[in-house]
Amino acid sequence: MNTQTTTSRVIQFSSYGDATHLEYASRTLAPLAPGAVRVRQQIAGVNYVDVYYRVGRYPLPLPGVPGVEGSGVIEAVGADVPMLKAGQRVAWVARSGGYAEHVDLDASRVIALPDDISLEQGGAGMLRAMTGYLLLNHYARLQRGQTVLVHAAAGGLGLLLTQWAKGMGARVIGTVSSAEKAALAQSRGLDDVINYRQEDFIARVHALTDGKGVDAVIDGIGGQHVLHSIEATRSGGMTISIGSISGEGAPAEALPAAQARGVLLERPSILSFIGELQQYRVAAAAAVTQLQAGLQIDIADRLPLQDAAQAHRLLESGAVQGALLLTL
Description:
By secondary structure, this protein is of the alpha/beta class. The protein is built from ten helices and 15 strands.
């Protein structure tokens, strides 16, 4: 057991606002609590929920440290932790605290990385892969031969969902905004691509499905877009609203619209889902299995921790194709 204090570099914000509010600072960590481990991070994932924290949509105690996933090597082990040891490669997902040189974690939530999963893939992909399990297995319960529509198919989550759904034997239709993004998504197995800037995706989906609509839609756009996703879903199918890049959640009229079409409407939260430890472990095990089977986490860019503000600007630009990482 290591009882020494440790100084850790972090990215924090002391008030809510744009990316300029992110500050490079140092914090002194208290001695490890029993049942906890200290991870010396090498990778911190950057996700849109970090932006929501920074702007105050999901408030954190100030000063707040964003970051919901990462990977590294265990540096110290607290008392009553029999299964983990210093030097072990691990990943993790939590509600915040990831933009830091060191992260203290409850041992029950540490995800041991097998030798065939790199720290980069584990740190960049664990949250997305756990979300893939939540969306495609837990909610949609996608079956071989069914069809799923994935919006923002060239984004980090979209590329992962395409691979996962194809592995389940599904047909995948995806929306993108450019020919370059279309090529990337198709390289990951996308069956049919729709450039939503050039054509009506609802009409195209109905044309591709003989007028029925798809079995499931994964909508990370939010706002009025959810209504269009419901229109693209078959009766008896499911529209899943996950995230809200538009800045808005599903509108109030979404539920009546879904009921009118006989569509199930879900708005899950991966961080709420994995708040329950058993669900966290099941989702983590599914994520590790997929990564070991060859699930590829596309990396858009790697920036040093101190450039977290630039990472946020890139993410908010909408031009990112794949995962953004902070390296330590």
